[in-house]
Amino acid sequence: MSTRIVNIVVAGVGAFGIKHLEGLAHIEGARVVSVVDPEQEKARSAAARFGAPHATADLSEALALPGVDAVILCTPTPMHARQAIACLKAGKHVQVEIPLADRLDDAREVVEEAGRRSLVAMCGHTRRFNPSHQYVRQRIGAGRFRLQHLVAQTFFFRRSNLNALGEPRSWTDHLLWHHAAHTVDLFLYQDGGEIVQAHAVQGPMHPELGIAMDMSIQLKSSTGALCTLALSFNNEGPLGTTFRYIGDTATYIASYDDLYTGAGDKIDVSQVDVSINGIELQDREFIAAIREGREPNASAAGVLPCYEVLDRLSRQLAG
Protein backbone atom coordinates (compact mmCIF):
# COMPACT_ATOMS: atom_id res chain seq x y z
CA MET A 1 0.00 0.00 0.00
CA SER A 2 1.21 3.52 -0.76
CA THR A 3 2.72 5.42 2.14
CA ARG A 4 2.86 8.83 0.46
CA ILE A 5 2.73 11.74 2.85
CA VAL A 6 -0.76 13.02 3.62
CA ASN A 7 -0.73 16.55 5.07
CA ILE A 8 -3.52 16.98 7.60
CA VAL A 9 -5.16 19.84 9.47
CA VAL A 10 -6.79 18.91 12.80
CA ALA A 11 -9.47 21.40 13.83
CA GLY A 12 -10.63 21.37 17.44
CA VAL A 13 -8.38 20.20 20.25
CA GLY A 14 -10.91 19.14 22.84
CA ALA A 15 -11.04 15.54 24.07
CA PHE A 16 -11.51 14.01 20.62
CA GLY A 17 -9.12 16.30 18.80
CA ILE A 18 -6.39 15.06 21.13
CA LYS A 19 -7.45 11.44 20.51
CA HIS A 20 -7.05 11.99 16.77
CA LEU A 21 -3.68 13.66 17.19
CA GLU A 22 -2.53 10.70 19.30
CA GLY A 23 -3.79 8.23 16.70
CA LEU A 24 -2.20 10.06 13.77
CA ALA A 25 1.16 9.96 15.55
CA HIS A 26 1.16 6.16 15.00
CA ILE A 27 0.36 6.28 11.27
CA GLU A 28 3.26 6.31 8.83
CA GLY A 29 3.09 9.23 6.43
CA ALA A 30 0.32 11.06 8.30
CA ARG A 31 1.70 14.56 8.85
CA VAL A 32 -0.19 17.09 10.93
CA VAL A 33 0.70 20.45 9.39
CA SER A 34 -1.68 22.66 11.34
CA VAL A 35 -3.77 22.60 14.49
CA VAL A 36 -6.84 24.84 14.69
CA ASP A 37 -8.78 25.91 17.75
CA PRO A 38 -10.67 29.11 18.55
CA GLU A 39 -8.52 29.33 21.69
CA GLN A 40 -5.19 30.15 20.07
CA GLU A 41 -3.13 29.05 23.06
CA LYS A 42 -4.77 25.61 23.04
CA ALA A 43 -3.93 25.30 19.35
CA ARG A 44 -0.31 26.31 19.97
CA SER A 45 0.05 23.92 22.89
CA ALA A 46 -1.33 20.96 20.93
CA ALA A 47 0.81 21.84 17.90
CA ALA A 48 3.92 21.91 20.05
CA ARG A 49 3.03 18.62 21.73
CA PHE A 50 2.48 16.79 18.44
CA GLY A 51 5.11 18.51 16.32
CA ALA A 52 2.81 20.46 14.00
CA PRO A 53 4.54 23.50 12.44
CA HIS A 54 1.46 25.76 12.39
CA ALA A 55 -1.30 26.74 14.81
CA THR A 56 -4.19 29.11 14.29
CA ALA A 57 -7.65 30.07 15.50
CA ASP A 58 -8.88 30.39 11.90
CA LEU A 59 -9.75 27.29 9.86
CA SER A 60 -9.65 29.24 6.59
CA GLU A 61 -6.04 30.22 7.32
CA ALA A 62 -5.11 26.56 7.72
CA LEU A 63 -6.97 25.58 4.53
CA ALA A 64 -4.90 28.14 2.61
CA LEU A 65 -1.57 26.61 3.65
CA PRO A 66 0.36 25.06 0.75
CA GLY A 67 0.18 21.29 0.40
CA VAL A 68 -2.77 20.59 2.71
CA ASP A 69 -4.50 17.37 1.63
CA ALA A 70 -7.11 16.74 4.30
CA VAL A 71 -8.89 18.03 7.39
CA ILE A 72 -10.17 16.24 10.47
CA LEU A 73 -12.96 18.25 12.12
CA CYS A 74 -13.39 17.78 15.87
CA THR A 75 -15.36 20.97 16.29
CA PRO A 76 -18.81 21.62 17.85
CA THR A 77 -21.65 19.65 16.27
CA PRO A 78 -23.54 22.70 14.90
CA MET A 79 -20.44 23.60 12.83
CA HIS A 80 -19.81 20.16 11.31
CA ALA A 81 -21.72 20.38 8.03
CA ARG A 82 -20.81 24.00 7.28
CA GLN A 83 -17.13 23.42 7.94
CA ALA A 84 -17.08 20.11 6.04
CA ILE A 85 -18.54 21.82 2.98
CA ALA A 86 -15.98 24.64 3.29
CA CYS A 87 -13.17 22.07 3.37
CA LEU A 88 -14.55 20.25 0.33
CA LYS A 89 -14.96 23.51 -1.59
CA ALA A 90 -11.31 24.26 -0.79
CA GLY A 91 -10.42 20.94 -2.46
CA LYS A 92 -9.60 19.08 0.76
CA HIS A 93 -10.62 15.60 1.83
CA VAL A 94 -12.51 15.74 5.12
CA GLN A 95 -13.28 13.55 8.09
CA VAL A 96 -15.97 14.89 10.41
CA GLU A 97 -16.30 13.65 13.96
CA ILE A 98 -19.71 12.16 14.68
CA PRO A 99 -22.33 13.43 13.99
CA LEU A 100 -22.03 14.41 10.35
CA ALA A 101 -24.74 17.02 10.94
CA ASP A 102 -27.65 17.74 13.25
CA ARG A 103 -30.10 18.09 10.35
CA LEU A 104 -30.70 15.60 7.54
CA ASP A 105 -30.66 18.28 4.82
CA ASP A 106 -27.19 19.38 5.95
CA ALA A 107 -25.90 15.80 5.95
CA ARG A 108 -27.19 15.34 2.41
CA GLU A 109 -25.48 18.56 1.32
CA VAL A 110 -22.11 17.25 2.56
CA VAL A 111 -22.64 14.01 0.61
CA GLU A 112 -23.57 15.93 -2.54
CA GLU A 113 -20.59 18.30 -2.30
CA ALA A 114 -18.15 15.41 -1.85
CA GLY A 115 -19.65 13.66 -4.85
CA ARG A 116 -19.42 16.75 -7.03
CA ARG A 117 -15.73 17.16 -6.22
CA SER A 118 -14.76 13.45 -6.09
CA LEU A 119 -13.23 13.92 -2.65
CA VAL A 120 -13.18 11.65 0.38
CA ALA A 121 -15.78 12.67 2.95
CA MET A 122 -15.89 10.45 6.01
CA CYS A 123 -17.67 10.60 9.35
CA GLY A 124 -16.29 9.39 12.68
CA HIS A 125 -18.61 6.47 13.30
CA THR A 126 -15.97 4.85 15.47
CA ARG A 127 -18.01 1.77 16.40
CA ARG A 128 -17.38 0.43 12.89
CA PHE A 129 -13.66 0.42 13.71
CA ASN A 130 -13.46 -0.67 17.35
CA PRO A 131 -11.84 -4.15 17.39
CA SER A 132 -14.70 -5.39 19.59
CA HIS A 133 -17.30 -4.62 16.93
CA GLN A 134 -15.01 -5.75 14.11
CA TYR A 135 -14.77 -9.16 15.83
CA VAL A 136 -18.56 -9.51 15.83
CA ARG A 137 -18.77 -8.36 12.21
CA GLN A 138 -16.25 -11.01 11.19
CA ARG A 139 -18.41 -13.68 12.85
CA ILE A 140 -21.45 -12.36 10.99
CA GLY A 141 -19.57 -12.32 7.68
CA ALA A 142 -18.36 -15.89 8.20
CA GLY A 143 -21.92 -17.09 8.85
CA ARG A 144 -21.07 -18.01 12.45
CA PHE A 145 -23.34 -15.46 14.13
CA ARG A 146 -26.69 -13.97 13.22
CA LEU A 147 -27.80 -10.87 15.08
CA GLN A 148 -31.24 -11.10 16.66
CA HIS A 149 -31.22 -8.20 19.12
CA LEU A 150 -28.76 -5.38 19.75
CA VAL A 151 -29.35 -3.87 23.20
CA ALA A 152 -27.39 -0.69 23.93
CA GLN A 153 -27.10 1.58 26.96
CA THR A 154 -25.61 5.06 26.52
CA PHE A 155 -25.30 6.66 29.93
CA PHE A 156 -23.65 9.97 30.82
CA PHE A 157 -23.98 12.62 33.51
CA ARG A 158 -24.51 15.95 31.74
CA ARG A 159 -26.77 18.14 33.86
CA SER A 160 -24.55 21.10 33.07
CA ASN A 161 -23.02 22.12 29.76
CA LEU A 162 -19.56 20.57 30.15
CA ASN A 163 -17.53 18.48 27.73
CA ALA A 164 -15.76 15.14 28.32
CA LEU A 165 -12.87 17.00 29.95
CA GLY A 166 -15.17 18.83 32.37
CA GLU A 167 -14.74 22.13 30.52
CA PRO A 168 -17.61 24.51 29.62
CA ARG A 169 -19.16 23.90 26.20
CA SER A 170 -20.18 26.63 23.77
CA TRP A 171 -22.93 24.36 22.38
CA THR A 172 -25.32 21.74 23.71
CA ASP A 173 -24.84 18.02 23.14
CA HIS A 174 -27.81 15.91 22.03
CA LEU A 175 -28.88 12.36 22.82
CA LEU A 176 -30.54 11.73 19.45
CA TRP A 177 -28.35 13.58 16.94
CA HIS A 178 -25.06 12.54 18.52
CA HIS A 179 -25.17 9.59 20.89
CA ALA A 180 -27.97 7.64 19.21
CA ALA A 181 -26.14 8.03 15.89
CA HIS A 182 -23.45 5.62 17.09
CA THR A 183 -25.94 2.83 17.80
CA VAL A 184 -28.31 3.40 14.88
CA ASP A 185 -25.43 3.29 12.41
CA LEU A 186 -23.84 0.26 14.11
CA PHE A 187 -27.14 -1.65 13.96
CA LEU A 188 -27.55 -0.88 10.25
CA TYR A 189 -23.90 -1.77 9.57
CA GLN A 190 -23.84 -5.06 11.46
CA ASP A 191 -27.32 -6.25 10.49
CA GLY A 192 -27.25 -5.28 6.81
CA GLY A 193 -30.99 -4.65 6.58
CA GLU A 194 -33.19 -1.58 6.34
CA ILE A 195 -35.18 -0.04 9.19
CA VAL A 196 -38.84 -0.96 8.76
CA GLN A 197 -40.06 0.23 12.16
CA ALA A 198 -38.69 3.03 14.33
CA HIS A 199 -40.07 4.47 17.53
CA ALA A 200 -38.73 6.87 20.16
CA VAL A 201 -39.95 8.38 23.41
CA GLN A 202 -38.21 11.02 25.50
CA GLY A 203 -38.34 12.26 29.06
CA PRO A 204 -38.67 15.81 30.42
CA MET A 205 -36.72 18.67 28.91
CA HIS A 206 -33.92 20.21 30.94
CA PRO A 207 -35.10 23.71 31.95
CA GLU A 208 -31.81 25.39 31.00
CA LEU A 209 -30.23 23.14 28.36
CA GLY A 210 -33.50 22.76 26.45
CA ILE A 211 -32.92 19.10 25.57
CA ALA A 212 -34.43 15.81 26.65
CA MET A 213 -32.19 14.19 29.25
CA ASP A 214 -33.55 10.66 28.79
CA MET A 215 -34.63 8.77 25.69
CA SER A 216 -35.62 5.28 24.56
CA ILE A 217 -35.43 4.07 20.96
CA GLN A 218 -36.72 0.86 19.35
CA LEU A 219 -35.85 -0.25 15.81
CA LYS A 220 -36.76 -3.25 13.69
CA SER A 221 -34.81 -4.30 10.61
CA SER A 222 -36.09 -5.86 7.41
CA THR A 223 -34.11 -8.95 8.52
CA GLY A 224 -36.29 -9.25 11.62
CA ALA A 225 -33.52 -8.15 14.01
CA LEU A 226 -34.31 -5.68 16.79
CA CYS A 227 -32.38 -2.82 18.37
CA THR A 228 -33.26 -1.39 21.78
CA LEU A 229 -31.39 1.72 22.91
CA ALA A 230 -31.62 3.51 26.26
CA LEU A 231 -29.92 6.90 26.59
CA SER A 232 -29.50 9.22 29.57
CA PHE A 233 -27.68 12.38 30.59
CA ASN A 234 -28.99 11.85 34.15
CA ASN A 235 -26.97 8.76 35.00
CA GLU A 236 -24.84 8.82 38.16
CA GLY A 237 -22.55 5.82 37.85
CA PRO A 238 -20.39 4.16 35.19
CA LEU A 239 -20.38 6.32 32.06
CA GLY A 240 -20.25 5.38 28.39
CA THR A 241 -21.96 2.92 26.09
CA THR A 242 -22.31 -0.83 26.39
CA PHE A 243 -23.62 -3.00 23.55
CA ARG A 244 -25.10 -6.47 24.07
CA TYR A 245 -25.23 -8.51 20.86
CA ILE A 246 -27.79 -11.28 21.27
CA GLY A 247 -27.58 -13.79 18.42
CA ASP A 248 -28.44 -17.30 17.37
CA THR A 249 -25.12 -18.82 18.48
CA ALA A 250 -23.70 -16.50 21.14
CA THR A 251 -24.01 -13.33 23.17
CA TYR A 252 -21.28 -10.68 23.05
CA ILE A 253 -20.90 -7.59 25.22
CA ALA A 254 -18.87 -4.76 23.69
CA SER A 255 -17.61 -1.67 25.47
CA TYR A 256 -15.54 0.55 23.19
CA ASP A 257 -12.46 -1.52 22.24
CA ASP A 258 -13.16 -4.35 24.73
CA LEU A 259 -15.31 -7.44 24.16
CA TYR A 260 -16.73 -10.08 26.52
CA THR A 261 -18.85 -13.19 26.22
CA GLY A 262 -22.34 -13.13 27.65
CA ALA A 263 -20.90 -14.93 30.69
CA GLY A 264 -18.43 -12.09 31.25
CA ASP A 265 -15.25 -13.74 29.96
CA LYS A 266 -12.96 -11.32 28.12
CA ILE A 267 -12.26 -12.05 24.45
CA ASP A 268 -8.82 -11.28 23.07
CA VAL A 269 -9.32 -8.84 20.17
CA SER A 270 -5.67 -7.80 19.91
CA GLN A 271 -5.23 -9.63 16.60
CA VAL A 272 -8.35 -8.26 14.92
CA ASP A 273 -6.54 -5.27 13.39
CA VAL A 274 -3.19 -3.48 13.44
CA SER A 275 -4.20 -1.52 16.55
CA ILE A 276 -6.63 -1.89 19.41
CA ASN A 277 -7.42 1.85 19.28
CA GLY A 278 -10.66 2.51 17.39
CA ILE A 279 -9.86 6.18 16.72
CA GLU A 280 -6.46 5.29 15.26
CA LEU A 281 -8.08 2.63 13.05
CA GLN A 282 -10.66 5.17 11.90
CA ASP A 283 -7.88 7.58 10.93
CA ARG A 284 -5.96 4.79 9.17
CA GLU A 285 -9.02 4.14 7.01
CA PHE A 286 -9.36 7.84 6.17
CA ILE A 287 -5.73 8.11 5.07
CA ALA A 288 -5.85 4.82 3.14
CA ALA A 289 -8.95 5.95 1.25
CA ILE A 290 -7.19 9.20 0.26
CA ARG A 291 -4.10 7.35 -0.93
CA GLU A 292 -6.09 4.73 -2.82
CA GLY A 293 -8.69 7.10 -4.28
CA ARG A 294 -11.62 5.08 -2.96
CA GLU A 295 -14.69 5.46 -0.77
CA PRO A 296 -13.87 4.78 2.89
CA ASN A 297 -15.77 2.70 5.37
CA ALA A 298 -18.04 5.21 7.18
CA SER A 299 -18.08 7.56 4.21
CA ALA A 300 -20.58 10.39 4.47
CA ALA A 301 -22.68 8.63 1.84
CA GLY A 302 -22.35 5.31 3.65
CA VAL A 303 -23.62 6.63 6.97
CA LEU A 304 -26.43 8.74 5.49
CA PRO A 305 -29.10 6.04 6.18
CA CYS A 306 -28.38 6.53 9.89
CA TYR A 307 -29.24 10.23 9.62
CA GLU A 308 -32.39 9.40 7.69
CA VAL A 309 -33.50 7.28 10.66
CA LEU A 310 -32.56 10.03 13.13
CA ASP A 311 -34.61 12.52 11.10
CA ARG A 312 -37.54 10.11 11.13
CA LEU A 313 -37.29 9.78 14.92
CA SER A 314 -36.82 13.53 15.39
CA ARG A 315 -40.00 14.29 13.46
CA GLN A 316 -41.85 11.66 15.46
CA LEU A 317 -40.72 13.20 18.75
CA ALA A 318 -41.63 16.70 17.56
CA GLY A 319 -45.09 15.53 16.53
Short characterization:
By secondary structure, the protein is of the alpha/beta class. Helix content is 35%, strand content 24%.
By CATH, the topology of the largest domain is Dihydrodipicolinate Reductase, domain 2
User: What is the helical fraction, as a range of percent?
Assistant: 25-40%
Q: How many helix segments?
A: 9
Average pLDDT confidence is 95
Number of domains: 2
CATH class value of the largest domain: Alpha Beta
- Within CATH, the superfamily of the largest domain carries the name Dihydrodipicolinate Reductase, domain 2
The tally of beta strands, per DSSP, is 13
Major pleated sheet: 7 strands, mixed
Proportion of residues in β-strands: 15-25%
Unreliable stretches (pLDDT < 50, length at least 5) are none
SSE string: EHEHEHEHEHEHEHEEEEEEHH
Computed Rg: 19 Å
Account of the 3D structure:
The structure is a single chain. This protein has 319 residues and is an alpha/beta fold. The protein has 2 domains: 6-126 and 277-298, Rossmann fold (3-Layer(aba) Sandwich); 128-268 and 307-318, Dihydrodipicolinate Reductase, domain 2, CATH 3.30.360. It has 9 helices and 13 strands. It has helices at residues 15-24, 40-50, 59-63, 80-89, 104-117, 131-141, 175-191, 278-292, 300-318, and strands spanning 6-11, 30-36, 55-56, 70-73, 93-97, 121-124, 147-155, 195-202, 214-221, 226-232, 240-247, 251-255, 258-261. The strands form 2 sheets. Strands 8-9-10-7-11-12-13 form a 7-stranded mixed sheet, with helices on one face. A 6-stranded parallel sheet has the order 3-2-1-4-5-6, with helices on both faces. Strand 1 (6-11), helix 1 (15-24) and strand 2 (30-36) form a beta-alpha-beta unit. The radius of gyration is 19 Å and the shape is globular. The mean pLDDT is 95.
